[in-house]
Amino acid sequence: MLQDPLTLYKLIVLYMLNRVNFPMTTAQVSDFILGKDYTNFLTLQQVINELNEAGLISSETIRNRTHLSLTDEGRETLQYFENRISDTIKQEINTYFSENEYSLRNEVSVLGDYYKSTSGEYEAHLVAKDRGIVLVDITLSVPTEETAAAICDNWQKKNQSIYQLLIRELF
To answer: What's the pLDDT tens digit per position in 28-40?
Structure first.
């Protein structure tokens, strides 16, 4: 077994990100790792920060959610050290993904963010993806930040029915 538990936690995060073909949120990674009592929240945040600083993962914050992706350097590092993760932990991760992959993918495939435009209005940018392919990409200009935030929140909840409505009306 590894001498340094932080190294094991880093390898677990790398292994998880390598198992999916979409970015995972910090919350999704945390749910698994903290749910299995591998470590505590502060240590996990340290691990994620160190992986990011080392260039083994990349992160992008979209509306208070940080999306994590494995970099080429992270993938290469995992190839060298993956054998240091026990088969039991690998099996727990694989089971987690087989039971939750659809909901995990759906959660990060629907993005809604807003920003203040140069005209002073707010723009709500809404995107829905499936396996990396953009299905819908809409930008709506609205007068207030509250409206833009509400649109983004509703997009998260109602994206499937909105997409179906667009398809029905446009085809």
So the answer is: 999 999 999 999 9
